[in-house]
Amino acid sequence: MLQKLHDTNQMEIEMGHLAEAKGASRATKEFGRKLVADHTRADGKVAAFLKLRGLDVKVLATTTSADPAHAVAADQGGEVFDRTFAAQMVKDHEKAIDLVEGAHRATSDEQLKVLYGELLPVLHEHKQAAQKLAEGKGRL
């Protein structure tokens, strides 16, 4: 589960950088910066948790190739990029929320419950922000 979280964080950081570079609107660029900052922080929490358990997140990390859905967004430009990116971020964050909520319910490890509980509000915030972008509501 923590490996999946790490991989998810890395993908969202990458997508955030892409939004900063290719976003047509200020809101998309701002959301990209927020994704980079928040998912970097979240990945740091995952790494710190693993370190306390004597593990290194880099050892658990997988080498994932680019997701085709993310590649479609990367190939777009301008307002088309913004719409494609926002829609993908809604989907990504819905998946991440489902993953973390399921893990939160399934674990009996209190420290993991705390970690998951810290990650969920930010994921929900990102999903809402992405929905606003997808609806064309501009600023986050």
Low-pLDDT ranges: none
How much of the polypeptide forms β-strand, as a percent range?
Answer: under 5%
What is the terminal separation in angstroms? 30 Å
Dominant shape? elongated
Helix content: over 70%
- Number of β-strand runs: 0
H/E series, N to C? HHHHHH
Number of helices: 6
Indicate the radius of gyration in whole angstroms: 15 Å
The biggest beta sheet is recorded as: none
Mean pLDDT: 89
Structural class: mainly alpha
Descriptive notes:
The protein is elongated and about 45 Å long. The protein is 81% helix and 0% strand. 27% of the residues are buried. With 140 residues, it is mostly helical. The two termini are 30 Å apart.
Key attributes of the depicted protein:
140 residues; mainly alpha; 6 helices; elongated
Would you spell out the secondary-structure blueprint of this structure?
Layout: H1 2-22, H2 26-52, H3 57-60, H4 68-75, H5 78-106, H6 110-134
Helix pairs in contact: 1-2, 1-5, 2-6, 4-5, 5-6
In short:
The chain has helices spanning 2-22, 26-52, 57-60, 68-75, 78-106, 110-134. The protein is mainly α and 140 residues long.
